[in-house]
Design goal:
The structure is a single chain. The chain has helices at 14-27, 37-45, 47-50, 58-64. The protein is 49% helix and 0% strand.
């Protein structure tokens, strides 16, 4: 199993739990191996995710970056 650690956060609301998880990941340090922490931080900052609009294409959308609207 390649999992090194599992970080779980909870709070009185979705935004509070997300903020706690962001704070925990900002302090998390793993040296010597690559982790997906930067990707998880991108997901946590994504407005659609923060609003609870998750779907199977979210990973692709987050990796593509913000979409310009006009």
């Amino acid at each position: 199993d390649p999992m090194l650690a599992k970080v779980i956060a909870h709070g009185p609301s979705r935004p509070a739990a997300i903020a706690r998880l962001q704070a925990a990941l900002a302090e998390f340090a793993i040296e010597g191996v690559k982790t997906n922490i930067p990707f998880v931080q991108l997901v946590l900052a994504d407005q659609a995710f923060r609003a609870g609009h998750v779907h199977t294409g979210l990973t692709t959308e987050v990796l593509a970056g913000p979409v310009a609207t006009s």
